[in-house]
Amino acid sequence: MRSDLASICFGGGFLVGPGLELPEAPHANLSPDARVASGCNQLECSLCGAPVRHRVGFKAARAGGPELAAALYAEADWARSKSLIAAPSGRLYACKCTLVEIADANAFRMPNRTWSCAGHPSPSGAPPGMLVLQDEHTAIMYSPNIPYLRVDLGGLLQLDAFQQVLTNKFIFALVAAKSRPHVVLNGAQLAKLGTDQVEWLGATWSRRAAASGMKRCSFVALGAQHFALFSQIFEHSGTKAARANGLDLRFFPIEQFHETWEAVSWFGG
Ligand SMILES: [Zn+2]
Ligand SMILES: [Zn+2]
């Protein structure tokens, strides 16, 4: 993660054809209230780890797999490439494992966020104060003045979407880079919480969280009434399982959320 990270593209970042804007300024990201899609200039591949290259006016001369992508990625000047031909209405994207061509005014997001926005620096280059990384179902909040990280979750998230949202690399990167071992997961706006999600948090997610340096995590979800029905599951599938992985994971009813959020002292001891 960039140390001067200020923002990510809402929705993970678009690939765009030549008919749509792709800003050059590194700080230009797609904000949640943007009306027209624009391309992300900080795309990164989650499979090969490479920053994504792009250029208008080319396409591959032949179909090819990862080998072609790797060879093209290594070529400094695509205008001299023997593997490419002119394609004025297309934009060619490449990482070390994948090639994508986008035509005209099309905008496209990679399935499963194989390529996604790696974060944009702040315009001034100055270190950001309150940092809010807002995405479709999450907002990750960091402040130099608050000793823990807050992650808001929202919407109807089935297990796979829930997992995708909570394995957002920025959560772990911020825990590590900003020394924030304490995290509040605010699930007050979640439309649903199932036992499968709690089990996954306790058994699987806690391992990755602990590996990033996270020590305590407060998960806030469900009103007090439902919370009482879930308390056994929280305790056994959540807290106990997480403790075995080195994470102190606790669950709170929504009514206690503000208490938890304000009570910085909860994390103090
Ligand atoms: Zn971006
Ligand atoms: Zn790749």
Index terms:
alpha+beta; Transcription Regulator spoIIAA; 2 domains; six-stranded mixed beta sheet; three-stranded antiparallel beta sheet; binds zinc ion
Explain this structure.
- Helix content is about 25%, strand content about 30%.
- The protein is of the alpha+beta class.
- The protein folds into two domains: about 5-115, no CATH class; about 130-265, STAS domain (Transcription Regulator spoIIAA).
- Helix 5 (about 225-245) links the parallel strand 14 and strand 15.
- Helix 2 runs parallel beside helix 4 (about 195-210) and helix 4 packs across helix 5 (about 225-245).
- The protein is elongated and about 65 Å long.
- The protein binds zinc ion (ZN) (2 copies).
The helix count comes to 6
Rg result: 21 Å
Class from secondary-structure proportions: alpha+beta
What is the CATH class name of the largest domain? Answer: Alpha Beta
Kindly state the number of beta strands.
Answer: 15
**Helix fraction?**
25-40%
> How many domains in all?
2
* CATH architecture label of the largest domain: 2-Layer Sandwich
Q: Give the averaged pLDDT, no decimals.
A: 89
Low-confidence stretches: 264-269
Q: What's the end-to-end separation, in Å?
A: 29 Å
Described by strand count, sense and barrel closure, the largest sheet is: 6 strands, mixed
Q: Approximately what portion of the residues adopt beta-strand conformation? A: 25-35%
Bound molecules: zinc ion
Q: Strand sequence of the main sheet, in spatial order?
A: 10-11-12-13-14-15
CATH superfamily of the largest domain: STAS domain
Give the topology string: H per helix, E per strand: EEEEHEEEEEEEEHHEHEHEH
Q: So what's the overall shape?
A: elongated
Determine the CATH topology of the largest domain: Transcription Regulator spoIIAA
